[in-house]
Amino acid sequence: MSELRRDPLRHQWVVVAPERARPPEGGRAERPSEPAGACPFCPGREAATPPAVLVLHPGPRGPHDWCVRVVPERVPALRVEGNLEASAEGMYDRVTGIGAHEVVIESPDHEASLADLPQAQVERVVEAWQSRLRDLFRDRRLEHVLVVKHHGVQAGARLAHGHSQILATPVIPGRAAARIARARAWFRDRRRCLLCDLLDQELATGSRVVTSDPHVVVLCPYASRVPFELLVIPRRHGAHFGQAAPDEVAALARALGETLRRLRRGLGDPPYHLVIHTAPNPEAYHPTVEPGPELERAWHWHLEILPRLGPVTGWASDAFVNPTPPEDAAAFLRSLPD
After folding, report:
1. Separation between Cα atoms, residue 21 and residue 1, nearest integer Å
2. Which residues contact 164 (CB under 8 A, 6 or more apart)?
3. How many CB atoms are closer than 10 A to CB 10?
4. 260 CB-side CA count, 13 A
5. How confident is the model at residue 152 (pLDDT cuts 50, 70, 90)?
6. Would the CA dihedral through 182, 204, 331, 118 be positive or negative?
7. Please, are residues 5 and 13 in contact by the beta-carbon 8 Å criterion?
8. pLDDT for position 35
């Protein structure tokens, strides 16, 4: 029998309807079709992208000897150059398009997805995410940084070569601000972190936990919006991904690689969205939300994976109907080798 579940972080109701479920299935993510020779992200074609803002090298440096490159988006949504100015037009507010839009090229290998990469390479990708976040937060005009990855055409990927994106903005986007507000409300009511409480309950229950180690826990949320939705949450409370310790970064990379390989083995490499949710810049000039000790204690950074297994019921209206109970999804993923 179906039931409605409320997610405490998003404050959102989801219909979980197991009677609509089918056996677990996925479908290989459709990849863009540009050949390796025409790909601007491949070694030897570095001039096809704007100059890199970060290059990680596996060994002695050479002109094409790199393992991760971060470059500005060729046609960025936001630009670092210019002045941050806010204005009003009657009842409407606007801010100049100051920010940053960067692309993280995850490997020199044109064919390799993040699930294909060896553990050391996944760690370098996560280290690049963290390094760029730290650097962007030195710009006090920028309040929020979002790390996102779209795997497969169905999830919005435009190039086949494995990459993720970093978007820094001078304001906090609405959904992120709403999440932070709910975490603060939880802290004000209980004097505890919402995600710490969630972790305690999920570890005690166990039915939605996919895997865990001393540093991170991977689980299917109680009110999963889509089949096989996943959260990767560090055990140690921390508001900022940029402040995660090296052992936590290594553990996140290990859990991420293992989880993506489970999705590929069990669901045929489905398209997915990946997002890292971190606290805003505490040194921002014009904060959207009040910084300070309460925010540091209320917010808990984490990573979210949303597979796209066919049409999503309720995406536009936020009235989600999920045919796969998260307990079943977690049990299926636990049964797979990592």
Report:
1. 11
2. 103, 104, 106, 125, 129, 147, 148, 149, 274
3. 16
4. 25
5. confident
6. positive
7. yes
8. 66
- List of residues 6+ apart from 80 with CB closer than 8 A: 98, 99, 100, 139
The total number of residues written for the chain in this structure: 338
DSSP 98: B
What pLDDT is recorded for position 81? 84
Residue 12 pLDDT class (50, 70, 90 cuts): low
**Of the candidates 26, 50, 44, 52, the residue with the CA atom closest to the CA atom of residue 115:** 26
Containing 231, the helix (H) or strand (E) segment is: strand 230-234
| Helix or strand run (H / E) with residue 307 | strand 302-307
Q: Give the whole-angstrom CA distance, residue 158 versus residue 51.
A: 20
Give the count of beta carbons closer than 10 Å to the beta carbon of residue 321: 15
Summarised one tens digit per residue, pLDDT across range 89-132 is: 787 787 778 889 999 999 999 999 999 999 999 999 999 999 99
The tally of CA atoms less than 13 A away on the side-chain side of residue 100 is: 27
Query: Which residue in the block uniquely carries the two structure tokens 């209320």?
Result: 298
Of 303, 279, 276, which Cα lies nearest the Cα of 290?
279
Whole-number pLDDT of residue 1: 58
234: tokens are 């560090």
In 191-325, where does DSSP find H-type helix? Answer: 194-205, 246-267, 293-298
Q: Residue 337: phi, psi to the nearest 5?
A: -70, 150
pLDDT at 106: 96
Those residues whose C-beta lies under 8 Å from the C-beta of residue 327, and which sit 6 or more positions away, are: 207, 208, 220
Give CA–CA dist 309/266, Å, rounded.
12
Q: Which two tokens stand for residue 325?
A: 């109970």
Instruction: Report d(CA 12, CA 17) in Å as an integer.
Output: 16
